[in-house]
Amino acid sequence: QDVLCFIRSKSSQCGLVRTGVKDAVPSLPMTEEAINKTCENYGSSTATSTSKPPTKPNSSSTSTASAKAASDIVKFSMGLNVGSLKEAQDMANSSVVKKKMEELMADQLQVPSPSVVAKLSASNVRRLADVARRLAAVLNTDYSISVPAGKSTNAVKNSVSDLGSKTSQLVDALTKKLAGTNFSDVNVSVATVGQPQIVRATTTPAKTTNSPDVSGTATAQGLMLFVVTLASTLMF
Questions:
Q1: Pairwise CA distance, residues 202 & 69, whole Å
Q2: Each residue of 154-207: pLDDT tens digit?
């Protein structure tokens, strides 16, 4: 009944005639008077909904993920002299030493431990100052410090730069941290502290999904097309 009433209400627009629709659907168990009455009721009950299209958000895109904020990273390296290349290799392969080196730098720079990532490696370095130029075993630590919230990048960078003048403090702190581990007897000294390098943060943009602006007019047009197709099928 809804479809038939819609056809009749829009018959002038669709190019349909009332008699044609009536002849096309002769099996409808409704008299002409009943059909007219139904159409009148249909029109009055849908006047409000058809006169004003539903309100839709007037937006062509919807954010599906908020932008991810990142922090600056301060990178630098530190070399420690140890007794032998074997000791340096064992320490570089130890997860315990890795954790202790991260804790050491978190304490020295006054940042949270999760902000510090250390990558350890072992090498033999020739000492240029030594007359015999003997090889020295070195435990290398490459640090990446994520600048935490509430702390400036320059403050972290300056703290790293000051480490070169605090080598004795670093050795004492590391010796205490290694106590109780398999490397508690290793004699270490600071060989080098590299200059800090800043890697600026980048922000990952939020992903957006385009959504069409569906209006009441577009919905009505789609319904009209459906009705015309249905009526044509019934008539022919």
A1: 8
A2: 999 999 999 999 999 999 999 999 999 999 999 999 999 999 999 998 866 666
Helix H or strand E encompassing 218: helix 216-235
Q: What one-character-per-residue DSSP string does 23-65 give?
A: HH-TT-S--HHHHHHHHHHHHHHSHHHHHSPPP----SEEESS
Does pTM surpass 0.85? no
| Pairs from 112-115 (Cβ < 8 Å, separation ≥ 24) | 112/148, 115/145, 115/146, 115/147, 115/148
Strands 189-193 and 208-210 turn out to be unpaired
Question: Any residues with CB less than 8 A from the CB of 141 and at least 6 apart, and which?
Answer: 77, 78, 79, 80, 101, 118, 119, 120
Report how far residue 82's alpha carbon sits from residue 86's, in angstroms, rounded to the nearest whole number. 9
Alpha helices in 59-196 (DSSP H): 85-92, 95-109, 153-161, 167-178
- Residue labelled with tokens 């789609």: 222
Q: Are 19 and 26 in contact (CB under 8 A)?
A: no
Sign of the dihedral defined by the CA atoms of residues 186, 192, 198, 204, in that order: negative
To the nearest 10°, report the CA torsion of 163, 165, 170, 171: 140
